[in-house]
From TrEMBL:
Record SMART domains: RGS
InterPro entries xref list: RGS, RGS_sf, RGS_subdom1/3, RGS_subdomain_2
Gene name linked to the record: Rgs18
One Gene Ontology biological process: negative regulation of signal transduction
Keywords: Signal transduction inhibitor
Domain RGS, first and last residues per copy: 86-202
Protein name as it appears in the record: RGS18 protein
């Protein structure tokens, strides 16, 4: 029987190249994952670099949350003490009014203080022709049935206010404003004085801000000692 390699010489050529071809493919397979891993590692380093360059990422997010009555220690304990003397005292100071408004947002009842503020602004109108458009806006926003920020008024008060809308006067919303004022004074104000953020102000503390700042510094200084200065290019 004749040698099959003599009949099919291409088999000899293929066989002679099997081993180097296998080595070449094996080498390519090993190199490919290595190349694919580089962009992923570089992206991680880039993200880390961005975080290190933006310390506000660690300490700024909590400032706008409703639970904090002030963005910083801008209210002294002495000033906060005065807020507890009376509800009038709290609303007469801008910082106190702002703090109480933020507290009501946590209770989903901020429409009460917004209505009270709108009434105060209404009574400051300098001419009679300003009453009608302002009164209409207040009535449609806070008083009429299914108003977007409807306040809790008894039927009689709502009816009296509604009847005066044809020719509004400076005193048009006095009864409604007094009702909402008493509601806040007797219900929301005592809870405000017992709230943790207000008690923190009395002690001269700004809750949560200082600890977050210290953790940020520790993260950038201690945990990354020895890291090359240029984290984005290796």
């Amino acid at each position: 029987m004749e040698n099959p390699l003599l009949l099919f010489p291409q088999l000899n050529i293929s066989a002679s190249k099997d081993k180097p071809y296998y080595k070449l493919m094996k080498s390519a397979i090993k190199e490919e994952p290595h190349k694919a891993s580089k962009p992923g590692a570089k992206q991680k380093r880039n993200r880390l670099s961005l975080l290190l360059q933006k310390p506000e990422f660690h300490e700024g997010d909590h400032l706008g949350k409703p639970g904090n009555l002030t963005k910083a220690a801008s209210v002294s304990p002495e000033e906060a003490v005065k807020w507890g003397e009376s509800f009038d005292k709290l609303l007469s100071e801008k910082a106190g009014l702002d703090a109480f408004r933020k507290f009501l947002k946590t209770e989903f009842s901020e429409e009460n203080i917004e209505f009270w503020i709108a009434c105060e602004d209404y009574k400051k109108s300098k001419s009679a022709h300003e009453f009608l458009p302002k009164a209409k806006t207040i009535f449609e926003t806070f008083i009429q049935k299914d108003a977007p920020k409807e306040v809790n008024l008894d039927f009689h008060t709502k009816e009296v206010t509604s009847q005066s809308m044809g020719q509004p006067l400076r005193s048009t919303f006095d009864a409604a404003q007094s009702t909402v004022y008493r509601l806040m004074e007797q219900d929301s104000y005592p809870r405000f004085l017992r709230s943790a953020p207000y008690l923190s102000l009395l002690q001269g503390r700004a809750p949560a801000r200082a600890p977050l700042r210290r953790r940020s510094r520790s993260f950038t200084v201690s945990d990354f000692k020895g890291v090359r200065p240029d984290l984005t290019v290796w």
